[in-house]
Amino acid sequence: MDITELINDIGKIIVFLMILMSIFLITVTSTKKLSNSLFAAFLLVTAFDFLGMFLSIQNTTLNSLKIASVLLQMPLYYLYVQSVCYFNFKLETKHLLHLLLFLIIFILFIATSISDKSYLFYQIITKLQYYCYIIAVLITLNHFKKLYQENYSANHYSIYKWLFQITVLFLIGSSFVLFRNFISYGKNNILLNSLNLLISFFALFVICWFVLKALYSPNLFLGIDKNLTPLKAIKKIDIEVEQTLKQLSSYMVYQKPYLDSELNLQKLALLINLSEKQLSQLINQQIGKHFFDYINEFRINDAKVLLKENPDLTVLEILYKVGFNSKSSFYTAFKKQTSQTPTAYRKS
After folding, report:
1. Average pLDDT over every residue of 268-282
2. Is residue 324 within 8 Å of residue 259, measured between CB atoms?
3. Which residue ranges does UniProt annotate as crossing the membrane (predicted)?
């Protein structure tokens, strides 16, 4: 089997996996229908583009549609990121603007029969669009990270980490393609074929990893409120603030609201009769911690006691008792606070 045949076979596997995953996302019962639909649309559009790895499309209109559809990939991925990060994200009429470049290029290809000039213009637009959306995704993830740290105690970091890793993988794949474009001009067929094979294997790895993460980590689809805004600093502490801090501390110690794994800023503010803004300012500006870290500190302190005084309890039982809902988030928070794993702490 030569390199070309191997690339063709890899392409068929990639397209099959993308279509299979899309069918699963569309048909599975879920509270995240919008996210799943956007993810499925992204996979289907990408699969349509990957048909070029093993199939030659002779029809000019269909070929124009396939090539132009590349300009739908990043808008769909960007909207998918938005829907995963923010549970109250909704598609609106303004989002149709993301289709504009695709429509312009598709019409241009139909009018010019994919001339050399129109294709060169398409290549430039594609590269510019790709990196603009990558920047937009990174800005979204940075904003998401800041908000979940200030307002949520649940482990939203896994969502951030997953989407950030995917974005980095996209950048790596894009770098391979850019390098291939330079090789093409040099007409080094051996190097070009080897690079095409590398890109094919990389694409196969990404889609397999993407699919497995989606299947085995359903908690990655939580989301936060997109209407929250980052807080500004408060410099002065008055008597009223000090009293409120004591009230908060007393409530945390005696009522232990942190044992609720779904505790967030809104719930805690309601419990102690404060506005969300007041509570968030207290924790972020006066205590100097994010809500996420503040709540986990109480949980870890309880866990430390249980680890020492209850040797019969497993680590898994303890993490659920103190308010965590996943082993990874518990281990991360525990090591951050104690510089030890729970097992090592218990033995010390």
Report:
1. 85
2. no
3. 6-26, 38-58, 70-89, 96-114, 120-141, 162-183, 195-216
Dist. CA 145–CA 293, nearest whole Å: 13
Contact 341, 335 (CB under 8 A): yes
Output the pLDDT for position 220. 54
Q: Which of 6, 20, 41, 35 is nearest to 208 (CA)?
A: 20
Q: Name, in order, each residue with C-beta under 8 angstroms of 115's C-beta and a sequence gap of 6 or more.
A: none
Domain residue extents for the chain: 3-221, 239-347
Instruction: Look at residue 57 and give its three-state secondary structure.
Output: coil
pTM of the model: 0.69
Counting DSSP H helices and E strands in the chain, the numbers are 15, 0
Q: What is the DSSP string of 213-276?
A: HHHH-GGGG--B-TT--PPPP-----HHHHHHHHHHHHHHHHH-GGGSTT-BHHHHHHHTT--H
End-to-end CA gap in the chain:
58
Could you tell me the maximum CA-CA distance found in the chain, to the nearest angstrom?
79
Query: Which amino acid, residue 228?
Result: L
Coil, strand or helix at 59: coil
Q: In this model, does residue 69 exceed pLDDT 50?
A: yes
Confidence of residue 238 (pLDDT cuts 50, 70, 90): low
CA distance 255 to 249: 10
**Residue with the larger pLDDT of the pair 137 and 337:** 137
Q: Cβ distance 33 to 72 under 8 Å? A: no
Cβ-contact 241, 287 below 8 angstroms: no
Q: How far apart are CA 131 and CA 134, in angstroms?
A: 5
CATH superfamily of 3-221: Rhodopsin 7-helix transmembrane proteins (1.20.1070.10)
